[in-house]
Amino acid sequence: MFSPLARAVLASVPVRFPSLHSCALVALFSFAIPAVSAASTPADSLEAEYALLERTDSLIVASLDRMRGVVPGSDTTIAWALFQAHPRRTITLVMPTLRSVPRGLALGAPNMVWRVRVLQRLTGLQFRARTRAKLGAEERSWLAPDSTGAIPFAGENAPRGMTWVAPRDAQRDILAQWQAWFEGGGASRPLPAVDRTRAPKGWWH
């Protein structure tokens, strides 16, 4: 009934949040996987194709919206399988939602940081920018400016499950770089192969 991948995910994910997992599993097994292997359930009409795209979009948007704060590892595994099955569509849906967010330390990560993580993981890119704001010693340790003074959108401490979001001017410059990449046809170019040696629940690092 299910592919080996589907059976493996079903066996490994505890159903702690029925509504979320039901939605995500439907995404993986009803919509996401056919996009990779169109021969398994070919659309027999343009209307069916549009309906499939609409349902897939809804699931991608819902998965992105759920990602905020500290997200359970099993939920990120399911979300990543969906994003990986539809990388270009995920990028297209993320781009119009990008906004700057308040600077500072956060438990887990704000939703916008998760969205930037998705872009970084799908494209293999990570943009940085300089800030006119004065960084304190602790903030500098989190954001780790490079030799030019440029910093990332957010600095992460995975073991502590915390994130330090960069000053807004740097965020805006980074988002502008993402927009320029996208408008320049970046999403239409070959995307990097997924490194399958990395634990799925840690795909955002």
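^ that was protein a. below is b, sequence first then the tokens
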Amino acid sequence: MCSVLALALTACNQNEEVNALVGNYTYKASGVVNVSEVGDIHLTPETGTMSLTDTDKEDEVIMSFNHNSGDAYEIRATVTKDSLYVRPMHRYLDVEVSRDTTALGTVIKNNETFDIEVAGSGKMLSNGNVSFVLSYSGKALNDASRTLNGKNIMLQCKRNAK
């Protein structure tokens, strides 16, 4: 009986905007970041699946991302009409950094992992998809003096068929 009551209260607590967003999506994130001492770097596009679920708060959703590489993370967002506002959160981001060693005439490529804060906002589109503009800001794990900043990271979420 208690679980039925809890389910009924949860259902009553949802708003139309949240209900319209709940579902499964495929996603692609891409953009350009600036890494100190290196310059602008085009991020390798990140693709995978995203599940958008409601919470016990009327205007909040959780987006659970499963990257095709195996990485997983969650983002919470507040929903207002057709907009979503990402609550700042931390995650790790691997970035391929190339360095031109002019003296040797070669280019060295290596991956660096950054601890970044993700923030931003999105819009629910008329076709049921969601489009976000995110910002990334953080520091390299192996060298805190190396910073990463990106202000126009595009995250496109396409709703999967039900």
